[in-house]
C-alpha cells in the first residue's frame, strides 16, 4: 500500500521532476510577491497583456537568431510602454487599452508563428514545458526571479505607498515615474522567467491568484506578502506532485490548486469570507433598540 511519504518522495526520484519542482517553486514565489502589488493597484489585466504580448517577440527573436528570452522581454516591455502611452494620450480607459494592445500583439504573434518554419512547438510556449526544464533553464529562471525579488523587497514600502496613493507618493518625494516603469519592467521579467514553467496563458493566473487569496485573509500588507508567497509555494509543490500521479500538465495543476485556495479563502476567511459576512449581516441590520 502506498503511503503518503511514498506519494511525495516517489516523483522526486526522477531528476526531471526535481528540476520541475524547483523551477515551479521559484516561479511561484516571485509571481506571488508581484501579485500582491498587482491586486492592490488593480493591474491584474496588465499581467495578462504583457504575457500575451511576448509571443511576437519570441518569434522574431527566433528568426533573428537571438535568445528567445531577449525577444520576450523586449516585446513585454514594449507592450507595457505602449499601454502607458495610449492611456496618457487618448480618452480610452486603461483596461480597454490593455485589452486592445495584448489581443493585437497576441494575434500578430500567432500570424508570425504560422509563417515561420520551425520545429518549436507552440504548445510549449502557450502552456509551458516544466518537465523539460534543464539545469541551465533552472539557473536562468532563478537568476531572473531572484533579482526581481531582491528589488521588490528592498523597495516594497515605496511601491506600497505608490500603489495606494500616487499623489501622496509624489508629495513625499518618491520617484513616482521610476516606480511606475520599474514595476512594469519587473513584471515583464517575471513573465519571461515564468514562460518555461507555466507558459504564456497560465502565468496570468499565477500573477493574480496568490495576491487575491492573501487579500481575502489579511488587512496588513506585510502579512499579505507572506501569505501569498506561502500559498503559492505550497500550490507549486502540491500541483507538481499531483500532476505526476494523475499524468497531467504541471502548470495547469498548479493553477487549479491556486484556484482551490482562493475559493476556500473566499468562503472561509475569518473577516472577509462569504460565510463570515453572512453571519455578521443579520446583526448589522438590527436596530439599536433590538
TrEMBL record:
Question: Chief location of this protein?
Answer: membrane
Q: Where are the transmembrane segments?
A: 20-40, 60-85, 97-114, 183-209, 221-242, 248-269
Keyword line: Membrane, Transmembrane, Transmembrane helix, Transport
Q: Record keywords: Transmembrane included?
A: yes
Q: Name one GO cellular component term.
A: ATP-binding cassette (ABC) transporter complex
Q: Where in the cell is it found?
A: Cell membrane; Membrane
This protein's superkingdom?
Bacteria
Xref: InterPro entries: ABC_BtuC-like, ABC_TroCD
Topology in the membrane? Multi-pass membrane protein
Keyword Coiled coil on this protein?
no
Q: What is this protein called?
A: Iron chelate uptake ABC transporter family permease subunit
Amino acid at each position: 500500500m502506498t503511503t503518503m511519504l511514498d506519494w511525495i518522495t516517489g516523483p522526486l526520484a526522477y531528476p526531471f521532476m526535481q528540476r520541475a519542482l524547483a523551477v515551479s517553486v521559484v516561479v511561484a514565489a516571485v509571481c506571488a510577491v508581484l501579485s500582491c502589488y498587482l491586486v492592490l493597484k488593480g493591474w491584474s489585466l496588465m499581467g495578462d497583456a504583457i504575457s500575451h504580448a511576448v509571443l511576437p517577440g519570441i518569434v522574431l527573436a527566433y528568426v533573428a537568431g537571438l535568445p528567445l528570452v531577449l525577444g520576450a522581454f523586449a516585446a513585454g516591455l514594449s507592450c507595457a510602454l505602449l499601454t502607458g502611452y495610449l492611456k496618457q494620450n487618448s480618452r480610452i480607459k486603461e483596461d480597454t487599452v490593455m485589452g486592445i494592445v495584448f489581443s493585437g500583439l497576441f494575434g500578430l504573434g500567432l500570424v508570425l508563428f504560422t509563417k515561420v518554419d520551425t520545429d518549436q512547438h507552440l504548445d510549449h510556449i502557450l502552456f509551458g514545458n516544466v518537465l523539460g526544464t534543464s539545469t541551465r533553464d533552472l539557473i536562468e529562471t532563478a537568476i531572473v526571479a531572484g533579482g526581481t525579488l531582491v528589488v521588490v523587497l528592498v523597495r516594497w514600502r515605496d511601491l506600497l505607498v505608490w500603489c495606494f496613493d500616487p499623489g501622496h507618493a509624489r508629495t513625499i518625494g518618491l520617484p513616482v515615474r521610476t516606480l511606475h516603469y520599474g514595476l512594469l519592467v519587473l513584471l515583464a521579467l517575471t513573465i519571461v522567467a515564468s514562460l518555461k514553467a507555466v507558459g504564456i496563458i497560465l502565468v496570468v493566473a499565477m500573477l493574480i491568484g496568490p495576491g487575491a487569496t492573501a487579500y481575502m485573509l489579511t488587512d496588513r500588507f506585510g502579512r499579505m506578502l507572506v501569505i501569498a508567497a506561502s500559498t503559492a509555494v505550497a500550490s507549486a509543490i502540491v500541483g507538481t506532485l499531483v500532476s505526476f500521479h494523475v499524468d497531467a500538465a504541471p502548470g495547469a495543476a498548479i493553477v487549479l490548486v491556486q484556484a482551490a485556495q482562493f475559493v476556500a479563502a473566499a468562503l472561509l476567511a475569518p473577516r472577509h469570507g462569504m460565510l463570515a459576512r453572512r453571519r455578521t449581516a443579520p446583526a448589522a441590520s438590527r436596530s439599536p433598540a433590538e
